[in-house]
Specification:
With about 300 residues, the protein is α/β, with parallel strands linked by helices. The protein is built from 8 helices and 14 strands. It is globular.
Length: about 300
């Protein structure tokens, strides 16, 4: 019954040398090349053309030279009605990731209000193609390690990240979904690590069914049945599935009394939110998850 509710909820929500895609989405090939990333200002605004539209994104690049394997890349996806700039101002994910050696792309969704077309509405943009081509461009231009491409999203962006990790053109190593969760829709050969961070008092995207969706990810990733829990801080419970195929991991962070706000963000201190959700940093946890994933791969 819970699994059915989870699926209904999901429907409602609804080196540097990887294969490239042309504007029609066809795979092309290219030879490995040495890469020196261009220097850009922090959170530099950029555009690329996709589906006949000028699409905007912010780009954050570490000051250090890339490692031999290339930089890890995080694509950070804002929530419904938000924007790249607003999402970064709230979460500081790109700023923190830049210090940790990650390249971060924070794109803008289209629409008024802006939303990611994760459910492929025919009157909406092909956001799957947009992000796949953006990852492909950045992999070549910014010296990205193609084995360390990560997605992080908030709310509508989290739902999009979860589906994108399974069906996007890029091979995503891990996905982090904050204040929303969707079940795995991946083919058997694709099994990214998954982290979801949820508040138990969220009425916008209710917590009910989350544990079943996480269990479905663990099953898809071939994780062993035993799991373990810990309490990284008061009111925060982490459930971890280990023994997954290809050293993947599946984690659920449940925050008692947390509402529909990115935990630990500028806007987390809002009426009705719990002290645990205000103090726990989802940004730090997401980046630690990605860093650990890189060490395991």
């Amino acid at each position: 019954m819970h699994r059915r509710a989870a699926l209904l909820l999901a429907t409602a929500l609804l080196a540097a040398c990887a294969p490239a895609h042309d504007e029609d989405g066809a795979t092309t090939s290219r030879d490995p090349v040495a890469c020196t990333p261009p220097r850009v200002a922090p959170d530099a605004p950029r555009t690329r053309r996709s589906d006949g539209e000028e699409r905007r994104y912010l780009l954050s690049v570490p000051k250090d030279e890339p490692p031999a394997s290339g930089f890890p890349l995080v694509v950070s996806l804002h929530g419904h009605g938000s924007s790249a700039a607003d999402h970064e101002a709230n979460t500081s994910l790109a700023a923190a990731a830049r210090v940790g050696g990650f390249v971060v792309a924070t794109p803008d969704a289209l629409g008024d209000p802006a939303r990611w077309n994760f459910d492929s509405r025919p009157d909406g943009p092909d956001d799957y193609a947009f992000i796949a081509r953006l990852i492909d461009d950045l992999t070549r231009e910014m010296c990205i390690d193609p084995t360390r491409v990560y997605l992080a999203g908030s709310s509508n962006g989290a739902a999009f990240a979860g589906f994108l990790a399974c069906r996007g053109g890029a091979d995503v190593a891990a996905v982090a979904m904050v204040i929303a969760t969707v079940p795995p829709t991946c083919q058997p050969e694709r099994h990214p690590s998954m982290l979801t961070i949820r508040g138990t008092a969220d009425v916008t995207v209710p917590y009910a069914g989350t544990e079943d969706m996480v269990a479905a990810w663990a099953d898809h990733d071939g994780c062993s049945t035993p799991l373990h829990t810990d309490e990284p801080s008061p009111g925060v419970q982490r459930t971890t599935y280990d023994g997954c195929k290809d050293h993947r991991r599946v984690e659920l962070v449940a925050i008692t009394g947390g509402v529909h706000a990115w935990p630990g963000s500028v806007r987390a201190d809002r009426p009705g939110n719990s002290a645990a959700a205000i103090s726990f940093s989802a940004t730090d946890d997401v980046l630690a998850f990605f860093a650990d994933e890189g060490q395991a791969s």
